[in-house]
Amino acid sequence: MKSYLTHLESSVTDTKVDADQLNTVCEESGKPLLARYDLDAVAQNWSKDDLVGRPETMWRYHEILPVREEKNIISLGETMTPLVHSPRLGKATGFEQLYVKDESRLPTGTFKARGLVMAVSKAVELGVKKVAIPSAGNAAEALSVYAARAGLECYVFMPKDAPVANHNVCRATGAHVFLVDGLINDAGKIVREGIESCGWFDISTFREPYRAEGKKTMGLELAEQMNWTLPDVIVYPTGGGTGLVGMWKAFDELEKIGWIGSKRPRMVAVQTEGCAPVVRAFETGAEEAELWENASTIAGGLRVPYPLADRLILTAVRDSGGTAVAVSDDDIITAMKQMCDLEGLMPSPESSATLVAAQHLLKKGEIKPEESVVLFSCGTMLKHVELMGGPELPLLNPHGDIDYSQFA
Ligand SMILES: *Cc1c(COP(=O)(O)O)cnc(C)c1O
Which of 94, 154, 283, 372 ranks highest by number of CB atoms within 10 Å? Predict the structure, then answer.
């Protein structure tokens, strides 16, 4: 196994830093660091044919992933996720080529696994023993399972109203679990202020440079699944933005090694009406987002009042000719049921938010019915089944007479 990782680079200045040391953010700007590879050497030494026969996991792209030694990969089997063609859902909503990238198949049921397996593997490679994370819930859960597998000591901090599945899986892993009477940014402050005295390595979104590299594999995989072409539109539920930024970076790297052309999908960042810092910045033409006060939405993964990667997210959206859309919680719940009812998919609220956004854009003429559209379904409905409840279900008495006319 070989990685062509060369160094890390600031996302705002041209400062380079050593990738074989532990790093967090760019020291001057406080903004994210991005991993860089020797792409000329990759282009010379790696071809699409090399992928034939490699296991169908995200590690098949190890040349442009940051882990150097195979023994450091703390894997639970990060499978390639299916790109599910959804003709029934497409027909009902007006899309001729609708696909759902179903990320719920990954360990812990969300795409957080891609980022956290990378962060933990790289932390192991660089000698980290104790990790800490502020999280809306799913990242904490993913970190805690990989930390358990790696034998790292793990501290997780999440909002008290995060899904109980998140709280309790973290407990089961033996992580030190703390609830915060606030949101992910409040949890982040607690972690940052404890780093020195507690000896934690901070795994926060974009304060840790390699989670985005894990999420980058969504873009690599999508390109491979579409036979090295890309869809017209990608609709992505954006909290911290690791996936959106990671995929945008993936496409850039694939073009530089000559595997795809210059055509890019329009990147659509989806948020909710109760927490839309990226949408507000996009609409006002700002380069940076501002803190969203009193953030509130059922889509916990999108309840990120201030994304550190604001500039990177906005650049990807704008350079791609895409847009940013805020949707309502009520529409999200309706769309969860619709995806389940018409295609058997089991999306989390963040996932179905993409369908709502795509429908808004179709209505406004910003997506054409014949364009190919990929929705990212980033997590499983199983952590949110309470949202799918309804009136009391009929209860049958197996010892009495069943009235079969009721089934007609
Ligand atoms: C974290 C999360 C998101 C947001 O992902 P980012 O790449 O950080 O923007 C969306 N949906 C779910 C289910 C999540 O857990």
Answer: 154
